[in-house]
Amino acid sequence: MSEQNRYELNKNLAQMLKGGVIMDVTTPEQAKIAEAAGAAAVMALERIPADIRAAGGVSRMSDPKMIKGIQDAVSIPVMAKCRIGHFAEAQILQAIEIDYIDESEVLSPADDIFHINKREFNVPFVCGAKDLGEALRRIEEGASMIRTKGEPGTGDIVQAVRHMRLMNQEIARISSLREDELFNRAKELQVSYELVRYVHDHKKLPVVNFAAGGVATPADAALMMQLGAEGVFVGSGIFKSGNPAKRAAAIVQAVTNYTDAKLIAKLSEDLGEAMVGINEQEIALLMAERGK
Amino acid sequence: MSNKIQITKKPRIGVLAVQGAFIEHERILESLGAEVFEIRQLRDLDRPIDGLVLPGGESTVQGKLLRDLGLFEPLRKKIVEGLPVLATCAGAILLAEHIAGENKAHFATLPAVIRRNAYGRQLGSFFTENEVDHIGKVPQTFIRAPFFESVGNDVEVLSRTESNNAGVDAAASDAAQIVAVRYKKQIALSFHPELNSDLRIHKYFLNMVGNL
After folding, report:
1. Is the Cβ pair A16, B61 closer than 8 Å?
2. B69 close to A (CB below 8 A)
3. Which residues of A fall within a CB distance of 8 Å from B163?
4. Which residues of chain B neighbour A18 with C-beta distances below 8 Å?
5. Are B159 and B183 in contact (CB under 8 A)?
6. Would an 8 Å CB–CB cutoff place A10 in contact with chain B?
7. Mean pLDDT computed over every residue of chain A
8. What pLDDT, on a 0 to 100 scale, did the predictor assign at position B5?
């Protein structure tokens, strides 16, 4: 199969995830709870971002056996994270037939200059971005799905909002440029003219764009959807909360009916305790600053 | 020469929009002249509807949301009563009477056994071009796709396809699989016509809606 066909198929899988919620899980039991609650996919990882943050130290790809246990437990797509630039970890994830690799700033970066050449892989990649330039650079490298970086493991939505708004503003600005101004914009963003041209013509990214990092409540999910996200990743927000199954199901429904405030009001009742949040100013490590 | 203006009623198509790739269907149907609306909750079913699209996505998610949002019984009733349906991938799973290896089904209005993720994980996804009866050779995009293991006597098989993907497991690759069927006014496909620029399958569906 041609490289182009494979990339199209990988973008297509992201299209099927749209309007859905992708949940972080650390055990087969959590994966089953997430699937039953309506997760469109799960992200298999040993520790959720809040715990990675608390534990400190170097954080790496999860044990393949643990990931396989989650693959066996559910029928929905299973994603897993590798470190930025760590193509050997990505090769391992491809070898166990993962459905999506997240080259993620949540783990400790393995390379402070180069990201993975994702075009060399048959499995799809999702990457984080905090502005349009980062998003297009990851797409140039072969990512078939983008998510905002947000600030993982904080339960604080402010960065995800900032990244989504910034990306939308930059897309709007490009689509208003004259054609002869696109060449310079491509140079400024350090991406190809073709990608900038696509954004100009279609007023959107060439791949699906999800919100991630800090989503903790149905209202957070609805906020991100109204800001233009095509779906939502929820990391620590579910299994660090008082009633994971109920909260997960409520967030799933809020993503489907994200403009229906009455319904979301009802969904937000009696969810138990939300994850304890950390404000941006209180944390020493900004994961969003990893990988430009 | 007649100078009277021909006014034809636009078919009104509801697209299930609880999760998945529903916008792609909406754009194609609109380009073909249909009046399209999204079904996200019960009150969306108050509108008159001539045809229903069940899009791709995750069938487990869609099945749960249909029930949580109170859409399941009213939609099932409409399908049983003969509302024309175009179902792709996850949508086909929602229609099938039996899901292989699972004891739970959803609408169960299509006498067939369907197998989920029948070609394996994402590495088993593939693209091909193949004949569909009444339509001709069409592009077929399979994404973690299901296929029909068997169909009832009254179900018309519209297309059989062999996976062209070397990564697919042996059980799936030894013969051409049933990937498109029609039963009464229900069309169910394993693949995704909404992901390609070929409009003929949607046209075929709108023709079926028109011949009420």
Report:
1. no
2. yes
3. none
4. 19-21, 23, 57
5. no
6. yes
7. 94
8. 58
Active-site annotation holder among A81, A130, A149, A240: A81
Q: Taking residues A282-286, report their average pLDDT.
A: 77
Q: Answer whether B21 sits within 8 Å of A8, measured CB to CB.
A: no
Q: Is pTM beyond 0.80 here?
A: yes
Residue B205 touches partner A, C-beta closer than 8 Å: no
User: Which residues of B form the catalytic set?
Assistant: 89, 192, 194
- Residue in A9, A39, A253 nearest the CB of B125: A9
Bridge pairing between strands A145-148 and B126-132: unpaired
Contact A15 B195 (CB under 8 A): yes
Per-residue pLDDT at B170: 43
State the pLDDT confidence band at A152, using cuts at 50, 70 and 90: confident
Chain B interface includes A41 (CB < 8 A): yes
- Count CA atoms closer than 13 A to A194's CA, side-chain side: 3
Q: Which residue has the higher pLDDT, B8 or A29?
A: A29
Q: Are strands B35-39 and B51-54 parallel, antiparallel or unpaired?
A: unpaired
What dihedral do alpha carbons A139, A141, A142, A143 form, nearest 10°?
Answer: -50
Q: Residue holding tokens 């999204």? A: B38
A176, A181, A182, A183: CA torsion to nearest 10 = -170
Chain-chain contact of A12 with B143 (C-beta, under 8 angstroms):
yes
What is d(CA A25, CA A32) in angstroms, rounded to the nearest whole number?
9
Q: How confident is the model at residue B94 (pLDDT cuts 50, 70, 90)?
A: very high
Please give the Cα distance from B178 to B115 (Å, whole number).
11
Contacts of B120 in chain A (CB under 8 A): 97
Place of tokens 């900032």: A162
Weakest-pLDDT range from B4-18, B130-144, B188-202: B4-18
Strand partners, B177: B161
* 3-state DSSP assignment of residue B176: coil
- What residue type is A48 in one-letter code? I
Residues A217-267 pLDDT 10s = 999 999 999 999 999 999 888 988 889 999 999 999 999 999 999 999 999
Tokens read off for B99: 């899901």
- Measured in residues, chain A has a length of 292
Tell how far CA A148 is from the center of its chain.
6
